[in-house]
Amino acid sequence: GEPDPPRSFIELPPGELLLMPSRMTGVPTVKLVTIHHDADRPDPRIKGVHVVFDPISLAPTVVMDAAALTVMRTTAVSIVALRVIAKADCDSLVVFGAGPQARAHIDAIIAEWPISKVTVVARRPERAVDMVTDATLRHIDVEFQLVHSEDAGPALREARIIVCATTATSALFDAADARDDVAAVAVGTHSPDCCELPAELVARSFVAVEERTSALREAGDVVCAINAGLMTPDDIDADLEQIAHRSVTVPDQGSRVFKSMGMGWEDAVVSARIAQGGSA
Questions:
Q1: 219 and 107: one domain?
Q2: Looking at the domain assignment, is residue 2 inside a domain?
Q3: Cα(227)–Cα(252) distance, integer angstroms
Q4: Which of 160, 216, 239, 276 has the fewest beta carbons closer than 10 A?
Q5: Are residues 150 and 225 in the same domain?
Q6: Is there a single domain that holds both residue 127 and residue 237?
Q7: Torsion of CA 81, 85, 89, 94, to 10 degrees
Q8: Tens-digit pLDDT profile for residues 222-275
């Protein structure tokens, strides 16, 4: 069988169950997560476990919280991509979303780039107040502002990096509001019918994905642009392996986009590092 097969989806009345197995690293792993359709619930939308098995006995050896692993893995992959597609002098960041992914991306990007201003954009700003307050205390030299999604235009027009970490099903902003040299990352969806980035921005950009076949199956930000006739599959410029090995040339000019869906092998790699640390 495939070492990293496509994730399986099981529809549930209030959400869905995802099964993500992998043996890519030589160590069998599987992540089981449920995702609730109701993004306004007080409890986390994503719940589940990630299990690591011994490759010889095949006995389970480590059980991890899947939601925490997903946040760690997704942020790590975003940073790998941004190190290539974002300019070293990026100083302004816009983040759509108010959940764990938004928080983690803010911290990680501030650690890597000379960010002086962060704008958090939320559909319900009152739900992001605590996150922004905490971030302000963690990063005392950075200016933070919280705006409603309808008021994001001014911040978008000056943002060097944009991160979309939401449950949106359609574009969160207009392509005309994004800088010509923006680096944008979308991590919130894994459905071919849903997108966070405007199709026009994706089509005009250098486009990187985790893996081309998976992207054409699940990366709505790319698929929607293709279905709109604005690009073709051949317009995907790089995958994560090329990005990680820096074996692809990113143009100095123009916008750059990375679309992340999350893959089982990424969970396997990160969980292996965590398991090694726990046994050290």
A1: yes
A2: no
A3: 28
A4: 276
A5: yes
A6: yes
A7: -70
A8: 999 999 999 999 999 999 999 999 999 999 999 999 999 999 999 999 998 887
